Amino acid sequence: MDSRYDIQRRGGGGSMNSGSSAKGSPALTGGQSRRRKIPPRPADYKLQIIIIGSRGVGKTSLMERFTDDTFCEACKSTVGVDFKIKTVDLRGKKIRLQIWDTAGQERFNSITSAYYRGAKGIVLVYDITKEETFDDLPKWMKMIDKYASEDAELLLVGNKLDCETDRIITRQQGERFSSRISGMRFCEASAKDNFNVDEIFLKLVDDILNKMPLEVPSKALSNSILSLQPEPEVPPELPPPRLRCC
Ligand SMILES: Nc1nc2c(ncn2[C@@H]2O[C@H](COP(=O)(O)OP(=O)(O)OP(=O)(O)O)[C@@H](O)[C@H]2O)c(=O)[nH]1
């Protein structure tokens, strides 16, 4: 892979399981074919990741590329929030990711801000071809400071790398911005061409796992945010997420 697409600043990585559940295979017993349902192995952990950034930068596209390997050329703007689930295998653990895709339009900030708190990872996206989306980054950082957990992992993504000829924001500008924020990674990606998309999410999850003790007793986990709970977790007092359509 071209080094331009490598995630900056820290090493690591992992493998991915694209399915949401393992499928059982039919068992043959006593010469008779019987279908025995093998329940999927439950996830070891559940993590929430939120994607934020200005309107049209490609938040939904990155999420859908990662979860469904699809890309929509002419999508409608997200209204409020949307979410997708994806299960990944990392370090021998099965991790169920809830990925929250937020509306970039400012008028939805009061809704989307309620989803920051539970996020263990935050993907902040700008469009390398649109200066205003880069200029908006300090505004998004203020939202993070105000609403997100202090220990959330941060990743800055310059999206639409396939539009190199229309590039306005240099890679160095992105790197400089992220280097001013403690612990923030930086990466350029293309949801359209599927450059670095899996890497974004897997690296973020890997960083989150790095921070947490994996082998804690199950009792301790049952009270933690990482324990399995009914999903999706919609913050209280909020209506369920409104889904977008393409
Ligand atoms: N060329 C190119 N276009 C992209 C890429 N990612 C998204 N787009 C296009 O950019 C437009 C906006 O993409 P969305 O994914 O809806 O952006 P968003 O950030 O979710 O937008 P809001 O919901 O309005 O906040 C769509 O027309 C996408 O097809 C990319 O990597 N390359």
Radius of gyration: 19 Å
Tell me the strand percentage band.
Answer: 15-25%
| Rounded mean pLDDT score | 80
Low-pLDDT windows of residues? 1-31, 216-231, 236-246
Distance between the termini: 31 Å
Count of β-strands: 8
Largest sheet: 6 strands, mixed
Across the major sheet, the strand order is 4-5-3-6-7-8
Bin the helical content.
10-25%
Number of helices: 7
Concise summary:
The protein is of the alpha/beta class and 246 residues long. It has helices at residues 59-68, 109-112, 131-135, 137-147, 171-179, 197-211, 218-222, and strands at residues 27-29, 32-34, 45-53, 81-90, 93-102, 121-127, 153-159, 185-188.
What descriptors fit this protein?
single chain, 246 residues, alpha/beta, two-stranded antiparallel sheet, 22% strand, disordered C terminus, binds guanosine-5'-triphosphate, hydrolase, lysosome
Describe the structure.
The protein contains seven helices and eight strands; from the N terminus they run E-E-E-H-E-E-H-E-H-H-E-H-E-H-H. The chain is an alpha/beta fold and 246 residues long. The strands form two sheets. It has a six-stranded mixed beta sheet, with helices on both faces. A two-stranded antiparallel sheet has the order 1-2. Strand 4 (81-90) and strand 5 (93-102) form a beta hairpin. The protein binds guanosine-5'-triphosphate. Residues 55-61, 72-75, 77-78, 103-104, 159-160, 162-163, 190-192 line the site of guanosine-5'-triphosphate (GTP). GO terms for molecular function: G protein activity; GTP binding; metal ion binding. Keywords: Autophagy, Cytoplasmic vesicle, Endosome, Golgi apparatus, GTP-binding, Hydrolase, Lipoprotein, Lysosome, Magnesium, Membrane, Metal-binding, Nucleotide-binding, Phosphoprotein, Prenylation, Protein transport, Transport. It is a lipid-anchor. It is an enzyme of class 3 (hydrolase).
